[in-house]
Design brief:
2 domains; D-Maltodextrin-Binding Protein, domain 2; five-stranded mixed sheet
């Protein structure tokens, strides 16, 4: 009898603990209806996707599981160059996109691919891009595709990994086939390189087959994620020629259909999403850079060479971009805004 009473008491405690544990897990800080969003991205989980992975987990927790976001990797929902098309067709509710995969679809966003912008400091970069995602030209770019800008991918400055003879001077780039998009690609052309604009997933195959000599990617995570580091024999470490924009956007129709509390939740988490992103990149650099130095030849350019590079491939590329886009939107204002915001950030 005593054993039975003891067993019943233990069972009651277990049920109470389980019940309280379940309710705490499912408790919603933000009440609302059940919503399921599909988020499309190419490639595997990596540093670029860390922020969105954080967001998917966070909104689920905050809403007690009512607002669910599922990330579909590997181009399951759309090819890398067709993400914006998928949003326009309402095929999914959110997506990553890279501006230089389709310059004509997002002409204002191409400003982020111009070389030698003042975005080398991660915190300055975060401030500038956050504000630029609200610029009317950027918003207009996305509205054409039923999209709302959410957060920047905050891609780190690019560096270049390659195979064969290393470009130890600026003249060494002549004739080299380099995967580099946007204004960065134009900068490499100014050095005599042959620009290639392959999607990230195709670059590794081209590199392995010898169809490419070198590839520019955000340093260091993307070179590892897309297996360029597996084949490379040398890398640049202080070229810092610029970056691009692989950001995240939401389906405008789906976003506007959300209850206000869900919209508020998404916007409240923007800062944390970007901080998660930056930490993921920093963690990868800490891990990858020693491996690069052990395995490959490191190429560093002198201050004089870097100054020459900026003269050749900086201002001329900026001027060309502004002139080519002045009839599409206020390209001068978009360009100037980057510099004004960077100056603001440095004063904070």
């Amino acid at each position: 009898m005593k054993f039975m009473m003891k067993w019943l008491m233990m069972l009651a405690l277990a049920v109470t603990w389980t019940s309280s544990g379940t309710s705490s897990v499912n408790a919603a800080n933000v009440e609302g209806p059940k919503v399921f969003w599909k988020i499309s991205v190419w490639g595997n989980p990596r540093a670029l996707t860390a922020g969105m992975e954080y967001l998917a987990k966070k909104v689920g927790e905050e809403t007690g599981g009512n607002f669910q976001m599922k990330i579909f990797y590997g181009g399951q929902l759309s090819k890398a160059r067709e993400q914006l098309d998928g949003l326009k067709l309402n095929a999914f509710e959110g997506a990553a996109f890279c501006n230089f995969y389709h310059p004509g679809k997002n002409p204002a966003f191409m400003v982020f691919s111009l070389p030698f912008l003042p975005l080398g400091n991660p915190q300055v970069d975060k401030y500038v891009r956050s504000r630029m995602f609200e610029h009317k030209a950027m918003v207009a770019d996305m509205e054409k595709w039923n999209a709302v800008p959410y957060v920047s991918g905050l891609l780190p400055q690019y560096e270049i990994l390659g195979r064969g003879k290393a470009p130890e001077s600026l003249d060494g780039w002549k004739g080299m086939r380099v995967r580099a998009g946007g204004g960065l690609g134009k900068a490499m052309e100014k050095l005599g390189a042959v620009r290639q604009t392959l999607p990230a997933g195709e670059t590794s195959t081209a590199f392995q087959r010898g169809a490419l000599d070198a590839a520019a990617f955000p340093f260091t995570y993307a070179h590892v994620s897309f297996k360029i580091a597996d084949q490379a024999e040398w890398f640049t470490s202080n070229l810092t020629p610029g970056t691009s924009e692989c950001g995240w956007v939401f389906n405008k129709k789906a976003y506007e259909a959300l209850p206000q509390q869900y919209k508020d939740l998404l916007m409240k988490e923007r800062d944390a999403v970007m901080d998660t992103q930056l930490k993921a990149y920093a963690d990868q650099d800490e891990k990858n850079l020693p491996m690069f130095r052990k395995k490959m030849k490191e190429i560093k350019y002198s201050d004089a060479e870097l100054k020459k590079l900026r003269e050749i491939a900086g201002q001329p590329v900026w001027d060309e971009w502004i002139a080519a886009n002045k009839d599409k939107f206020n390209s001068q204002d978009v360009f100037d805004s980057i510099w004004k915001l960077a100056e603001e950030a440095q004063k904070k």
